Amino acid sequence: MTSYPKAAPIRSEAYRRLVAALPCINCGVWMYSQAAHPPPTGKGIKESDIDCFPLCCARPDITGCHADYDQYRLVPKSDMRSLAGHWAEQTRQTITNNGDMPKGLIC
Fold first, then answer.
1. Residue 18: enclosing H or E segment and its boundaries?
2. SS3 label, residue 20
3. Which of 68, 94, 95, 103 is deepest in the core (most CB within 10 A)?
4. Strand partners for 53
5. What CA–CA distance (Å, rounded) separates 71 from 100?
6. Is residue 99 packed enough to be buried (19+ CB in 10 Å), middle (13-18) or exposed (0-12)?
7. Number of H helices and number of E strands within the chain?
C-alpha cells in the first residue's frame, strides 16, 4: 500500500474574519457569526479555512447554531459533510461576489 502525504490545510485569518462578518448561514442572525469548519476528515485535523462558513455563537438564552452544528443537532451526522460543503461554497461565492477575497488566496 502506497501512502501519499496529505496537503496542508490552508490557513487565512483574513478569510476567517470575512466569514465571521457574514450573517449566520443557518438562521440569518447578524453580528454573532463565527467561522465554522466542516467536520474533520482525519483525527485531530482541522479542515482548511476556505471551507469555513458563518454560524452564530452562543449568547444568553440561545445555544447558537455553531454549538448545535458541532453537536450534530442541526442535521444528522451522515448529512453533515454534504451540508458543510454546500455552505462553504455559498460562503466563498458571497465573499467573491462582494469583491472581498483576500489577495493570493486560491479557492
1. helix 13-20
2. helix
3. 95
4. 36
5. 31
6. exposed
7. 3, 2
Distance CA 89, CA 51 (A): 8
> What are the C-alpha distances in Å from 71 to residues 63, 64, 91, 104?
11, 11, 21, 34
For 49-67, how does the pLDDT look when each residue is reduced to its tens digit (9 = 90+)? 999 999 999 999 999 999 9
Taking only the tens place, the pLDDT of each residue in 67-85 is 999 999 999 999 999 999 9
Q: Please list the residues that pair with 62 across neighbouring strands.
A: 59
Sign for the CA dihedral angle at 59, 65, 71, 73 comes to positive
In whole angstroms, give the CA distance from residue 76 to residue 79: 5
Can you tell me the distance from the alpha carbon of 6 to that of 92, in angstroms, rounded to the nearest whole number?
A: 23
d(CA 76, CA 15): 28
The grid coordinates listed for 32 are: 454573532
**The three three-digit cell numbers of residue 17, written as one number:** 474574519
User: The whole model's pTM is what?
Assistant: 0.87
